[in-house]
Design goal:
The structure holds two protein chains of two kinds.
Chain A lengths: L27 H15 L7 E5 L14 E4 L5 H11 L4 E7 H7 L1 H10 L3 E7 L2 E2 L5 E2 L23 H7 L4 E6 L5 H10 L3 E7 L11 H4 L4 H4 E4 L6 E2 L7 E7 L4 E7 L4 H4 L9 H9 L7 E8 L5 H13 L6 H5 L4 E5 L2 E3 L1
Parallel strand pairs in A: 1-2, 1-3, 3-4, 4-8, 7-8, 9-13
Antiparallel strand pairs in A: 5-6, 7-13, 10-11, 11-12, 14-15
Chain B lengths: L3 H5 L8 E2 L1 E9 L4 H14 L3 E7 L14 E9 L12 E4 L2 H7 L8 E5 L5 H6 L16 E5 L1 H8 L7 H5 L2 H12 L5 H10 L4 H24 L7 E2 L7 E7 H15 L4 E5 L6 H8 L6 E5 L3 H13 L3 E6 L1 H6 L1 H10 L3 E7 L16 H6 L9 E3 L3 H18 L2 E7 H5 L1 E5 L46 E3 L14 H16 L17 E7 L4 H13 L4 E5 L2 E3 L5 H6 L1 E8 L4 H10 L3 E5 L8 H12 L1
Parallel strand pairs in B: 1-8, 2-5, 5-6, 6-7, 10-11, 10-12, 12-13, 13-15, 14-15, 18-19, 18-21, 21-22
Antiparallel strand pairs in B: 2-4, 3-4, 9-16, 14-20
Classes of the chains: A alpha/beta, B alpha/beta.
């Protein structure tokens, strides 16, 4: 990035392209696009050094609408393409856009390995629990019993959980948000500042094929009781006096699991409510597994504990292996056991 | 060609002369036959012989000991004249156990020499090799000369003083055998001794033991000769070679070095995305050690990620390269389409092996030509070139880099398992003689605004690196609008873009040399047309046919797609066209399709290279 160049103040408008946005009216993708276009100028991103890489699916049209470099690749392979882009030029800031089918079904392998290697990038996985672009088949995140053209009697396989998948793959940053949430830019910003692979699951409403499946926690009504917005160093509290009392998340030490406790008179310490520590991997594992229903939906930055990134390790190793060596092609070709043929015949 | 059998007859004077000799070392896959062969190759090259080798080993790393399918063999053909094949039938077979004898003896020339280790011809090993009786004793080898002695015991005796365990001592057997072979062909031991000192630098006692075994084998030859039990020394004169610096090189190393050279000539860094696969992994291994040449290697999670990452690197301004073998290339198909659609440079190397599916991982075949030329969805043209030999693979890799960067296109380079594994002497080229082809990136928008899909006279689009201010744009696999590169599904636009992609690749023919005739006249009775590693046997077969007075020419095609512009006319100037291929007739189909010539196929898919005699017979049949 050109830190030395005087930077003119950019606005969300500067990150829009002249291309007509072609998602269905009312699609959650619009809100995510707006959130990203609001976040980019706020964090001081530069269009020339920003690359959006996507796979295939509704979400993967995203790069066409952001005024930066963009590569709309093939189904599931965006993480692999992004790896090549970043290794070839580590200065570039990579945003990887994928969906539940693209990133967890056909491309699950690549997602896993990118996370394990810890390539420095932001991965935005739009989870709408459905295949939208192919007209509504169930996806790897669809809930059991989802009726679709390919599962007319309801799906029978258990869904993958993106955040748990990411953490299990070795992710050092796991965030969660949803399309219309006002907090989404905050999660995007935290992901941007995390050096390494930052995985964000974004619940996204497919209004045509899977309308309002996230309403049970994403709807504004009752949101306080159903959303746990995590903040580093702050107690895990949700609900309010108005909605039937403040509650918190505590550790059930006997059963080694999380449980919901009532907080009276604001004394969360007495109730044993956990203070969120984004570097605590054990808590992160519990949070990504925390079932919605008995618990609120954990949102925000669930985990953020940077580790050395893949491309920086590759660059360091390349430099180390090259240090003190002068590339000399003629010498390289003349290595090994050689001999010289002169007029008098060969000699060692 | 003189056979060793001839020289086994008592003769006066010093070591007799032979023009060329074929030796095959065969043993258990754990016996170190490839190592023995490799070192014999080196000493042979140092003796100034021209040579060609054919390593042939099982797919299993350590197949059960003594079994027929666990036999590993290494064949070398060396001589004082031009050698282009690993030889048809061996003159000498070194058989380290019954299984090695059983699987290889049928190839041996009548009257050829068998050197066998009696120490391994136990009842148990005979049974494993499915022998009812000991062939060394039952007279079944009467048509050959047999020299059988207990190499195992002789080796143990020779290394006794180093206090190795039985197992370790027996591991020196291959060096004992090599010592004998060096004596037989009047070779210098010193380079092997030097090599052993380096190889076992951390275990000097192993170096000493191996050297002792080597010397003992050599001494045994001398003594046996004096003892008059039939063993004779043979001298093969040095082949006339141009003066200069030489080395041996395998096709895999040649591809790796050629890619490094190509990237340098294009003034680019190289990114290599690979995934382990036989027989292509050697290229990844070779390049992994060359980081100081601006090479980044990435062992991806699968074949698709290997090519996809290479495409990403090309997008970001490096030369993306990936290499695999048939099954891996199949997996890369969709991504090749992406590189064609986004018009990014990319080199895809296919070290072909026997197929389909897993097929014959360690055996050779040329059966991926259709896959290279046609094997993608949609009208997806890309240039294809094929290397004919290990050293030619170097030049072809440079050529692949040139086409990829000068035309903004993926290019497939076809090699095969035979070329990849085989070694041949190589006169080290003068790097300063290579013609550079530096790449220029677009730095500022064209007049009238940025057009990522605008084209030059060759129909090449500009290469724009992310990171360049003011040139932000989006690319992808969806059909592009002419010039702007925006998404465009319009009928006329798809027609136009399909035509552009086709014509751009066909235009590569403007930058390649006319097809030459390797041997014989341009025009005549018969053209034998080949591609890839069949070069050697075709060359020799045509040479022999011409020596008999037949009007035959040899044409060998490097540029498989697009083909040289004069090829059609050239082929039509012959009465007949014969196309020998290690597949069921793939180049033949393309030639018929492109030029309406009545090309006749000669096909072999046994996993083994053609024998000269097989092609010679087909020539005779066509001519008569």
């Amino acid at each position: 990035m050109n830190d030395m160049t005087p930077v003119e103040k950019m606005t969300p408008k500067d990150w829009e392209t002249d291309q007509e946005v072609r998602w269905c009216p009312g699609c959650g993708d619009y809100a995510i696009l707006k959130a990203v276009q609001r976040t980019l100028p706020a964090i001081g991103a530069r269009p020339e050094s920003t690359v959006f890489v996507s796979g295939i699916g509704c979400s993967s049209r995203f790069p066409y609408y952001v005024q930066s470099y963009g590569f709309h690749t093939i189904h599931g392979r965006a993480p692999a393409v992004a790896t090549g882009v970043k290794l070839a030029n580590p200065e570039l800031d990579i945003w990887l856009i994928t969906g539940d089918g693209d990133g967890l079904s056909i491309g699950g392998n690549h997602t896993m390995h990118l996370l394990r290697r810890n390539l420095d990038c932001q991965i935005l996985l739009f989870n709408n629990e459905i295949y939208g672009l192919t007209k509504g088949q169930y996806s790897p995140t669809s809930r059991v019993g989802t009726k679709t053209p390919s599962t007319p009697y309801g799906s029978v396989d258990r869904p993958a959980r993106p955040a748990a998948f990411a953490l299990g793959s070795g992710a050092r940053f796991v965030g969660r948000g949803f399309d219309v949430s006002k907090n989404l830019p905050e999660v995007l910003t935290a992901a941007y500042h995390h050096k390494g692979a930052a995985f964000i699951e974004i619940f996204q409403n497919c209004i045509v094929y899977n309308k309002d499946v996230f309403n049970d926690f994403a709807a504004p009504k009752g949101a306080e009781d159903r959303q746990l917005w995590l903040k580093d160093g702050e107690p895990m509290l949700f609900g309010s006096e108005k909605t039937g009392g403040v509650k918190g998340i505590t550790l059930d030490r006997d059963n080694l699991c999380l449980k919901v406790v009532e907080v009276t008179d604001g004394d969360w310490e007495a109730a044993g409510v956990i203070v969120h520590d984004v570097k605590n991997r054990s808590i992160a594992h519990m949070l990504v597994e925390m079932p919605f229903g008995p618990f609120p939906m954990a949102l925000g930055v669930l985990y953020d504990d940077p580790a050395p990134s893949f491309e920086s390790a590759i660059v360091a190793q390349n430099e180390q292996a090259s240090s003190g060596k002068t590339p000399d092609l003629q010498k390289l070709l003349s290595t090994g056991q050689t001999w010289t043929v002169s007029e008098g015949g060969p000699e060692l | 060609m003189a056979s060793v059998a001839e020289i086994l007859k008592p003769e006066e004077g010093s070591a007799p002369q032979a023009e060329a000799v074929v030796v095959r070392f065969a043993g258990d896959s754990g016996d170190g036959m490839q190592l023995t062969g490799g070192q014999f190759t080196l000493s042979t090259a140092l003796a100034g012989n021209d040579l060609a080798t054919f390593p042939d080993f099982p797919a299993e790393i350590r197949a059960p000991q003594g079994t027929l399918f666990g036999v590993s063999a290494f064949q070398i053909n060396f001589g004082s004249s031009d050698i282009t094949t690993a030889g048809d039938a061996p003159d000498v077979l070194v058989a380290m156990n019954p299984a090695a004898l059983k699987t290889n003896v049928k190839d041996l020339k009548p009257g050829g020499l068998i050197v066998a280790d009696t120490g391994e011809f136990s009842d148990r090993n005979l049974a494993k090799a499915k022998y009812d009786a000991n062939p060394l004793e039952d007279g079944s080898l009467a048509q050959w000369q047999v020299l059988a002695f207990d190499i195992s015991q002789l080796t143990m005796d020779s290394v006794k003083e180093f206090g190795l365990g039985n197992k370790e001592a027996l591991r020196c057997k291959n060096m004992w055998t090599l010592g004998l072979a060096l004596w037989m062909f009047d070779r210098d031991r010193q380079p092997i001794i030097d090599w052993l000192r380096v190889k076992f630098a951390k275990a000097p006692e192993l170096a000493d033991a191996n050297i002792a075994a080597l010397n003992a084998g050599h001494a045994y030859g001398e003594t046996a000769e004096i003892g008059g039990d039939g063993l004779k020394q043979l001298h093969v004169d040095a082949a006339p070679q141009p003066a200069g610096l030489y080395r041996t090189i395998t096709g895999a190393d040649a591809v790796a070095y050629g890619l490094v050279a190509g990237a340098q000539l294009a003034n680019l860094k190289m990114f290599y995305g690979g995934y382990p696969i036989t027989p292509a992994s050697a290229v990844l291994h070779s390049l992994s050690k060359l980081k100081e040449y601006g090479v980044t290697t990435f062992q991806a999670e699968d074949e698709i990620a290997a090519i996809a990452s290479a495409i990403g690197a090309s997008y970001a301004g490096q030369l993306g390269v990936t290499c695999s073998s048939g099954p891996g290339i199949a997996l890369k198909g969709e991504a090749m389409g992406l590189a064609i659609m986004t018009e990014l440079p990319l080199v895809i190397v296919n070290i072909q092996r026997g197929g389909p599916s897993t097929g014959l991982p360690t055996k050779t075949e040329q059966s991926d030509l259709y896959q290279a030329v046609y094997g993608r969805n949609g009208d997806a043209p890309l240039p294809v070139i094929a290397a004919r030999s290990p050293t030619d693979a170097f030049d072809c890799a440079i050529e692949a880099c040139r086409i990829a960067t000068q035309y903004m296109t993926p290019v497939i380079l076809l090699s095969d398992g035979y070329i990849g594994n085989a070694a041949e002497p190589w006169q080290v080229p003068d790097v300063s003689s290579f013609e550079p082809f530096p790449v220029e990136f677009l730095e500022t928008a064209q007049e009238g605004g940025l057009q990522p899909y605008a084209r030059d006279e060759k129909l090449k689009r500009p290469w724009i690196k992310p990171g360049t201010p003011g040139l932000m744009h989006r690319i992808g696999g969806i059909e592009k609008q002419v010039n702007t590169g925006h998404i465009d599904y319009a009928p006329a636009n798809h027609q136009a873009m399909t035509d552009i992609r086709r014509n751009k690749v066909l235009g590569v023919a403007d930058s390649i040399p006319d097809q030459e005739v390797e041997q014989g006249a341009a025009g005549g009775k018969l053209a034998v047309v080949g591609w890839g590693s069949t070069y050697g046997p075709i060359h020799q077969a045509v040479r022999r046919a011409r020596a008999k007075g037949h009007d035959v020419s040899h044409i060998h095609i490097r540029h498989i797609w697009p083909m040289p512009k004069n090829l059609g006319e050239l082929l039509k100037s012959y009465d007949k066209v014969l196309v020998p291929e290690m597949n069921t007739g793939q180049l033949k189909t393309v030639l018929r399709d492109q030029y309406l010539v009545d090309a006749k196929p000669l096909n072999k898919t046994s996993g083994q290279p053609f024998r000269i005699a097989e092609i010679e017979a087909a020539i005779e049949e066509m001519i008569s």
